[in-house]
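Write out structure tokens for Glyoxylase-like metal-dependent hydrolase (Beta-lactamase superfamily II).
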Amino acid sequence: MKWQQIPLGPLQTNCYIVENPDKTCLIIDPGEEGKKLIHLLSQRKLKPIAILLTHAHFDHIGAIDVVRETYKIPVYIHKQEEKWLEDPRLNGSQLFMQIEPIMVNPADHIIHNEGNMKIGEFSFHVFHTPGHSPGSVSYYFEENDVVISGDALFQGGIGRTDLPGGNSGQLLKSIHDKLLSLPEETYVLSGHGPVTTIGEEMDSNPFLNGF
């Protein structure tokens, strides 16, 4: 399995492409610039089979519909945010006057529980990691030492908690219980910024000193 980080949109939100040797791939958080993303996928002759969302904030969902329609693939989201895609107030786009309200068609599949998930030949584990938002999830590809954490954990930082449904105590508990328990060599692919590792954040992240 290989992965690629693609920053998209004005907030440079990281979209991730996770691919297998047969060129099938998962698209995680297609936040903006759908045509650019489709062009990159076409250049690499990749065959998307699903869109996975770490959460439904506006900067992670803007290109969903154009990508979904192009490839005729399903969208997965956690049950606590299944209504957010259609609601600019909940997904946060209504809160920023410089951003057009974002409304996306409903997801095709709802993630109800943590645990193992299999899509095509991709097998991974879903962690519910709320705090940045109530339905935030992280996708852990154990065999490849990779966790895609959305906006829960960043290099040297953690997600903001001042948007609808945010809770700082809950976020720190999610990070401690679900992410810091992973092997230290695990790569953390965050929603913004560079790639880091669990070990690096345990050692140097100032927000996690209490742990």
